[in-house]
Amino acid sequence: MTPVITAFESSPDRGRGLARDMRVRWALEEVGAAYEVRLVSFRAMKEAAHKAIHPFGQIPTYEEGDLALFETGAIVLHIAERHAGLLPDDANARARTIMWMFAAVNTIEPPIVEWSAAWLMERDKPWYEERLPMLQARIDARIGDLSRRLGEAEWLDGAFSAADVMMVTVLRRAENSGLLERYPNLVAYIARGEARPAYRRAFADQYAVFADGQAAG
Amino acid sequence: MTPVITAFESSPDRGRGLARDMRVRWALEEVGAAYEVRLVSFRAMKEAAHKAIHPFGQIPTYEEGDLALFETGAIVLHIAERHAGLLPDDANARARTIMWMFAAVNTIEPPIVEWSAAWLMERDKPWYEERLPMLQARIDARIGDLSRRLGEAEWLDGAFSAADVMMVTVLRRAENSGLLERYPNLVAYIARGEARPAYRRAFADQYAVFADGQAAG
pTM of this prediction? Predict the structure, then answer.
C-alpha cells in the first residue's frame, strides 16, 4: 500500500526545503519506499477534513491504509521501523537513535522556531532588537552543546540513521541565523546529510512543487 | 538491573511535580519497575560528568547498564517497550501512541515553555504585558485543538498509555496559565491522570525530595 503524505501547496520558503514534509520525504527516499503527495492550501489545512487527520492543522501527515499519523518524529520512526536502513539492530543503539530524534524536535527545534516566529511576527515591534540576542543565545546554547557532543563524528550515533534525518533538517531551519557558522563540525554535518542521494531526490521533489507553482502562476 | 534516573537536588517548583523527572517516575510506577534516583545540583548539571550523559545539561537522565538516555519521550518509550502496560499491541495503535508522545513534547510543550520562560526572564521588561496575549494565544491554539480532538474520550487513543503519561505531565506545566480552565475536558483528563495510583506514588516520591530538602535546610 503506497503511503500518502501531505505538503504545502504553496511553499512558504520558495523551495528551500525547510518545511517539515522534507524530513518524511528524505526518510522515504532513504529506504526506497514509493509514496504519493497530496498538496494542501493554508486554508484547507485548517478545515475539518484535514484536522480529522492532523488535529493541529499542519503538514505533513502520513496515511497508509487504516493508519493516519502526524508529527514528523513519529512518521519517520514508523518508516524506520518498517524498512531497513534507518534504525540500528542493537537495542541500546536503537534507543539512542530514538533519543536523538526526540532531541531534534524537543531540544534543538523549539528555540529555532521561537526565533523564527519572532522575526515573522515581531520584527517591527520596538522590542525586537533588544530581545534578539536572548533568542540567539537560546539557539546557541543548544547547538553549542550539540557541536561538542558530535565532535569529529560523522553522524550522531554510529551509522547514519533516522536521528540524522531529523537533526539535519531541524538544524537547516537555523541556516539564516548566522549561528551555525560558529560550529564548523555542524556545518559539515549538515553538508554530509545534504550530499546523500536520498536527500537530493527528496529536495528535488519538494522543489518541483514550488517550481510548478511558479510556472502555473 | 535497576535503572538510575536523575532529578533536581533542589526542586524549583517546591514539590509541585512539574520537573521532567515526574514523567519518568510515573512511567516506572505504572509498569511496577524499581528504580533509583541520583539527585544533582544546578551546578553539577552543567559539569562534564553529567554532560557526558546529558549533553544539554538537564535532568532527567536514565542509566541502565550500558545504556544512558536523556529526553523524556525516549526514556518513557524505552520503559514502555520493555514492560507491559504502556503501549498497545496493535501496530497502528502503537504508532499513534508514539505520535501523541511526540505531539506532547513537540506541539503542546513548546508554547508552554516559551510562556514560562517569558515570565521567568522578562516579566520586568516593558514589553512583557503587551506580548503576553500572543504567548497565551499560542498555548490556547494548541490546547484548544487538543481539547476538540480528545472530546469525551478518557485517554488520547483507546486505553491509558505512555502518550497520556507524556501529555498529562506536559499539560500540568500550563496549570498556572489560567488557560486550561477554558477546556473542562482537559481539566478532567489531567485529573484522571493524577488520580492513578502510579501517578500518586511518583508524585509522593518527588515531593519527598523537596520535603527532605526543607527539613535539611
Answer: 0.98
